[in-house]
Amino acid sequence: xxxxxxxxxxxxxxxxxxxxxxxxxxxxxxxxxxxxxxxxxxxxxxxxxxxxxxxxxxxxxxxxxxxxxxxxxxxxxxxxxxxxxxxxxxxxxxxxxxxxxxxxxxxxxxxxxxxxxxxxxxxxxxxxxxxxxxxxxxxxxxxxxxxxxxxxxxxxxxxxxxxxxxxxxxxxxxxxxxxxxxxxxxxxxxxxxxxxxxxxxxxxxxxxxxxxxxxxxxxxxxxxxxxxxxxxxxxxxxxxxxxxxxxxxxxxxxxxxxxxxxxxxxxxxxxxxxxxxxxxxxxxxxxxxxxxxxxxxxxxxxxxxxxxxxxxxxxxxxxxxxxxxxxxxxxxxxxxxxxxxxxxxxxxxxxxxxxxxxxxxxxxxxxxxxxxxxxxxxxxxxxxxxxxxxxxxxxxxxxxxxxxxxxxxxxxxxxxxxxxxxxxxxxxxxxxxxxxxxxxxxxxxxxxxxxxxxxxxxxxxxxxxxxxxxxxxxxxxxxxxxxxxxxxxxxxxxxxxxxxxxxxxxxxxxxxxxx
Length: 515
Description:
It contains 15 helices and 20 strands. Strand 7 and strand 8 (211-212) form a beta hairpin. 33% of the residues lie in helices and 18% in strands. The longest helix has 30 residues, at 485-514. It is of the alpha/beta class. The radius of gyration is 32 Å and the shape is extended.
């Protein structure tokens, strides 16, 4: 026995045995490190999106909502596991941002009983790929497993209520039901996705005590391209609504035909009353950028925006405004006390406001000496103090002593001067004025531009849903290479003839030299 132990000790004492033991220990340590790394990676998933457009990253809108979740969310996709790969990847991105998000795949074929729990009574079945967002007893179904649709379902659950957005009628405005190029059916769908209920409002039919009334449940009142003027009572009702803390959006096209005097005195007066007077011109853009996208000089392409929550994230976004008129801002000293204007969209430096009707009719436009040069303002956001408007004489008399932004008594509440300090006891009215309504027509709302996003941001700000304002997820970039026939021929010769021929000759040369 002792001899056998001695032989074992001798064997272990050899150099090869020691190296083998060291190798085994190293392998065990490496295995332990790999197990530890995988354990940590499974608990904390970190990934990097190196695509140019951030195609595999959640949008800032979605991230902001997930980071502020105050309840648990469960994402369920009703599909076969092998077919739900992309949806699962999207679910994992949601779960990586917030620990309150969990997800699951339910196979309708393998687990029909569990799938039927999400089926309505009158339904014969649920389409494969349907996503269900759950929180407590609330559920929202999504037929397209895309980030925008899933996030909208999350928003609907979190908000718990649908806000009403009224579109006025009776003045030849654009219609929510029109599916043609100039209709608003695409915008109506986007509003519904964002948990807003777009409905028409015939304001002349709502008369109480001899006065036109705005519905109390109106989150936003929108006038989308009225061709006919308002009645005096309608303009007064809308102005009183905004001054009382209401929210409104006016999309006012140039006069028809362009370059002629605008007879819509109540509409232009309403905009001027809130500090943004329509100029009655047509903005011409001579930069040539719009022509690259197939637009004419009468369709300015805007890529410059003011600093405001509505335009947050629009640094690299392009919007177009066909046949738009510019807006002239009232000097701050002449505004009612507490009212503030913020510019939203600006035309290029080489634009101008054309007022010559003959030049506009012929299409041969030139900048005249009496025409306003760019950059011109195409849209303004107006912060309106609540209450009765001050006496114009009082405003004129005190404009040098009191800054327009200051409140009635700045010393009483120093924080009241802060533009972002809004409380339930002291709400503000909000008004957005745009010199164009064509930019939200179906033809542009469905185009790969920022028009629809800009409009939705306006509605979000007006409805005091600033937390939802962000650029929506962008589609994958088209990065194809366009070559001429000569370039294609050169690439073919280089890749199929010259390079293979070079290496063939080189190989033969090396082989011959070694013989």
